[in-house]
């Protein structure tokens, strides 16, 4: 069994920055793609950014040039650096990790989410 925990959310003014962290723990034989999603009230959960095992990154058009996803393999941690934040970035941000928990079991794990609020 593995666990994923997000942190780093908060309230920030438009134009500000936040850095979110996603830490995986537990039985981990390997971590494949990790992605950040966000869900605003009344809206669907959408992918924001992802990073593969070999470090390839993808971003939603709405955050390209403003957000940066990175990882620290030694700490099983993925970061989302969010710059030039806009009120429309306000949402609960979730981490999803594709984890090999033993030699035959690979599952996706979700964290509990961290709230990001951007004031205008």
Can you put this structure into words, describing what you see?
- With 120 residues, the protein is mainly β.
- It is 0% helix and 62% strand.
- It is built from no helices and eleven strands.
- The chain has strands at residues 2-7, 10-13, 18-26, 30-39, 46-51, 57-59, 67-72, 77-82, 91-102, 105-110, 114-119.
- Strands 2, 4, 5, 6, 9, 10 and 11 form a seven-stranded mixed beta sheet that branches.
- A hairpin with a 5-residue loop joins strand 5 (46-51) and strand 6 (57-59).
- The protein starts with a strand and ends with a strand.
- The mean pLDDT is 97.
Strand and helix layout:
Blueprint: E1 2-7, E2 10-13, E3 18-26, E4 30-39, E5 46-51, E6 57-59, E7 67-72, E8 77-82, E9 91-102, E10 105-110, E11 114-119
Parallel strand pairs: 2-11
Antiparallel strand pairs: 1-3, 3-8, 4-5, 4-9, 5-6, 7-8, 9-10, 9-11
Q: What do the pLDDT scores average to?
A: 97
Task: Give the class from helix and strand content and strand pairing.
Answer: mainly beta
User: In what range is the share of β-strand residues?
Assistant: over 45%
**Strand and helix order:** EEEEEEEEEEE
Enumerate how many helices there are, as a single number: 0
What is the 3D shape?
elongated
Q: Output the radius of gyration.
A: 14 Å
Q: Which regions have little confidence, pLDDT < 50, spanning 5+ residues? A: none
Main β-sheet description: 7 strands, mixed
Helix content: under 10%
Ends distance: 41 Å
Query: How many beta-strand elements?
Result: 11
């Amino acid at each position: 069994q593995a666990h994923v925990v997000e942190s780093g959310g908060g309230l920030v003014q438009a134009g500000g920055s936040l850095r979110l962290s996603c830490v995986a723990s537990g039985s981990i034989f390997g971590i494949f793609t990790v992605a950040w999603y966000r869900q605003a009230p009344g809206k669907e959960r959408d992918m924001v950014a992802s990073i593969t095992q070999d470090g390839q990154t993808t971003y939603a058009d709405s955050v390209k040039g403003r957000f940066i996803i990175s990882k620290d393999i030694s700490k099983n941690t993925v970061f989302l650096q969010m710059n030039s934040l806009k009120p429309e970035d306000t949402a609960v941000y979730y981490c999803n990790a594709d984890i090999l928990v033993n030699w035959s079991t690979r599952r996706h794990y979700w964290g509990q989410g961290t709230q990001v609020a951007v004031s205008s």
